[in-house]
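quick one: zinc ion bound model?
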Amino acid sequence: MLEITKESIEKATAKARIAKPLVKVIEFRRYSVTNRETGATYEVRFTKIAGKKFGECNCKATKICYHISSSLPIHLVWASQMHTATR
Ligand SMILES: [Zn+2]
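yep, here:
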């Protein structure tokens, strides 16, 4: 698992903007991200531990990858809605 911070996500977000992968929701906190050019699909998961956000992806990257950064905005919107709904 990799911690998601502003710094760690920044580069990956720039790459996601260029790659524009296809993001599908599997379930809350689980996403499938497909590279439109190669068709390669990876699974991304998000976890929150002690107020810190973590992401993991089953691709080869050892840092926050663009699969994580491209599904993060969707996850954040959903997570905030879940939070509002359970209040
Ligand atoms: Zn990845």
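The longest helix spans residues 66-85.
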